[in-house]
């Protein structure tokens, strides 16, 4: 059986009817992926275009601007760099979502880790080789965000307190705590807006030769592959899947459920911390108070649409990065509010859901009877 | 410390708590009902935003009363997306909920900017009703202060309280309430008993949408008197937390909304008292308290067993 | 197939059918659950629906109750074709059903569960409902507390509530899908009386059961299904005037074809159960000792209070008792799923009370849970993976941290063949199999890889005769090899047939331990009744 160990939906269990008439599996699956990702984007673009028309803007021009804003004149490098934090968050979420755990405290974990390393970086900078500094900062970011998940994790693991509530609450706390730190101990006294002291632009994360792209992107790519492997091949991935599918069964088969919950939560936190480190150390070099890119809400649905498959999140993440980077230019040119990007992302998500559903309907709609009769006859 | 809490400060605290708490009350009440029916509305923020926008525009063109109705209608209309995609078609509630929030954030900002980018209109203060006699009591009366207090509030606040009581009664004493409770805990049992699970969930969700829309409308019409982008500022998510902490009890929604309302407005009140305290810190406190309570008492939280799970008859 | 089949169940002499199914066909992925089934249900008659696990009984009745839509076929009520497209329609037509798997809302009170969907009124009518409950309970001859939270009731009591619920609106047809599987012998007798009374009220009753003596003693008419088809029918005149033994032979012949019938060794087929095991010489040194074990009671459970037991190598120790008297707590405490608050458990000479489930498993302790859907299997995972769930990360299925699909598949093929698991393939989700086949998956997993002692909790619950026999034979064969067994069962016949000794559990305590042998059944019964009288008031 060549199927993926942790994904219950495999070709082997496809209903006999449709499976028999389907083209060879590989081509079929490729086609399905293309359809599943392109159709909703097209539909959302059309719907968004209608909105633009209603607002008196030229949709064609607008979308051309999104593309050029996200791809042309080296902007593609910004798009690629934006992918790093998004992909790292997505991977982190896979560890919890697969286990049926809702870590919705992403923004708090992200900002707290980002705030702490932004405050720490000026202390380290110049006192050690840059490479060592980055290593320390990445580790600290991972640890801080990871630690920030402990309370929701333990409450869920030992008292069964729902983690949606607790992770949202710790997220609010984390965001405020980050602001308190940035406006207090970490504030750059030389600056008149509350922000941390900046690391010189030239001494941020090293770039890939010939580009502006920082190496955080490579870290993200490697970890995405590692996540995919862990989920699909290792016993750790299967344990998470069992916990997600049936927590009582997990206890029954000898999985230490409280410990696994803690590990899953902390792993996701660590990834989110790394995402913050890649963004702060790769792009900004400092954090301003009340800064919140709010990546969390954008990434959660992508993880679902990719069915918890780390590699499958990459195209979704790329599309999101392109839209957020290119959207700025396009909204400016079209004279509409730059919140249009949010509307577009929301529409893509809704249409993705619908497309997915239509696909499922199509395979379910046929009576299983046909398949059985055909096989017998 | 005692001289900080003068009558003025206490009145301001109460008034501010109510002002900030009422939107939470509406939204959390709606969400509580929907959650009991098994529907998790992550899009609550989106319902509130749409309610705030439509409520404001309606109130601007007509009157406050129609504004609130418009807000409720808008919230319900947005929740219809949830009904169709998640309840009827079985899509993932969290994905769709997030999509709703994002799309509503984008749509309201976009439309409002294109409509009112230059003018940025505001509404006048909403008229209050003074409860005869009671409104003359110091601190809680508020009949003679500019922002009112417990017994001097716009009608919508009293309507809100009536809805809380009515909802609690409906949940306990009627077939609707029973159906809603069953739909969240064991939908297959409700179905087997001959009651439509999808219908029950649909009505609960529409109620949630209407309530959240109303809360959003209160935010723009009464609390702020204007609309701005992201006016809800994450209150939808706070309301989700409140709804879950309330464990299905209307009274807890009321208490929670008021406590969080006070914490949202406490720094303003303290400024009257001449105390300058970081809003970040104040806003953190109620969450820290709740977490601390959870850690110390380790209270098992109760959520409906079928929350956020689509119901498909006969599925194995 | 057999001479007793009359075409389509039409019977000129009998009353006209209240409900008639014609040509009902229903397919699920990879299985034809119902294949052109005709069935007529008549008022005042108990119609027994029999067949092996996965024969399609539950599916057929779910079609009648509106839970499942047929692919083909018609349903006629009083001769007129009807469409039952929802449970609501079924209830309106007077079809009440007690499902195989509970349909009570666990967090609601008994009364709330009964009132659910019972009226179009806005307000709940509590007072009226209490009266109606008293009425229906009297008709059934049972006693339930209307205000008890449903999940705090023992399974047997829950089943009574289910029946009351099905009768609540004065059904015309009452379908009972394995109602006796959780009942004690006394409970079954009570149910039989109740069914008799309902017949008197003119109800048509469908009874699904795996216990043939129930079918032959309660049924007026029998239909046997096999792989989705009707393979035999017995009309009232064919049932009358034949001995139970004779009838059961005929039915077994229909159910399983020639390969098993006649099967005198099948326990259910015998009028009088004899202890099947001759007493053997077993090593004195116990393999498992449970010493003054205490487990805290939680959520309506009994807990354990000072339970002491010893199981010798190769011994089969039975635990008899009314369901909900601490059986599950005992099983889970031994398996390591539940902490002991006091006392000790020693296994193979070492104390295991503080070891994890995993460590106990590696010592050779196995646990066949009675909740095969809830915890025994992961419904969403394929059969193949479910078969290795307790060996995650171990060779040969995992090497250097990475799964070996070929090994998993090889193991699955082997077990599917060995335990005759009826599944479209090893990649099929376990949740879609019939109850009996899910149980086989659990057994296949637990009994592999060198077990030393197996705790079986209701090992044959809901299984057909052949599977039941296979399970019991396995338990005995393993015991002969020196593998001990702790068999928890509410079925006294089963324990008498299998065990060396039988302990009786009552209210979380061991009421006594009895050597199996002549008169054992009666003495266990006495101990049980003592507990029974205390528990079910
Ligand atoms: N919802 C479903 N999805 C897929 N397969 C199903 C579903 N329901 C039933 N089946 C399959 O249909 C067949 C008949 O199942 P059914 O539950 O009717 O058997 P049964 O006669 O009631 O067996 P048992 O005695 O074990 O309860 C089985 O092979 C089962 O796996
Ligand atoms: Mg069945």
Produce a short descriptive summary:
With 377 residues, chain A is mostly helical.
Overview of this protein structure:
The complex is a heterotrimer of chains A (377), B (316) and C (537). Chain A has a single domain, classed as Orthogonal Bundle (ABC transporter involved in vitamin B12 uptake, BtuC). Helices cover 73% and strands 0% of the residues of chain A. Chain A is built from 16 helices and no strands. The N terminus of chain A is likely disordered. With 316 residues, chain B is mainly alpha-helical. In chain B, 68% of the residues lie in helices and 1% in strands. The model of chain B has no long low-confidence stretch (mean pLDDT 85). Chain C has 18 helices and 22 strands. In chain C, the strands form 5 sheets. A 6-stranded mixed β-sheet of chain C has the order 6-7-8-3-9-10, sandwiched between helices. Chain C has a 6-stranded mixed β-sheet with strand order 16-19-20-13-21-22, with helices on both faces. Chain C is globular and about 70 Å long. The chains are: A mainly alpha (377), B mainly alpha (316), C alpha/beta (537). Chains in contact: A-B, A-C, B-C. The interface between A and C is large, with 32 and 48 residues. Bound molecules: adenosine-5'-triphosphate and magnesium ion. The site of magnesium ion has 5 residues of chain C, from helix 1.
- Main β-sheet of chain B: number of strands, strand sense, barrel status? 2 strands, antiparallel
Helix content of chain B: 55-70%
| Alpha carbon gyration radius of chain C | 24 Å
Give the distinct bound molecules.
adenosine-5'-triphosphate, magnesium ion
Indicate how many domains the architecture of chain B comprises. Answer: 1
Q: What distance lies between the first and last C-alpha atoms of chain C, to the nearest angstrom?
A: 48 Å
Largest sheet entry of chain C: 6 strands, mixed
The greatest interface here is: A-B, 47 and 49 residues
Number of helices of chain C: 18
CATH architecture of chain B: Orthogonal Bundle
What is the CATH domain class of chain B?
Answer: Mainly Alpha
Strand order of the largest sheet of chain B: 1-2
Uncertain spans of chain B: none
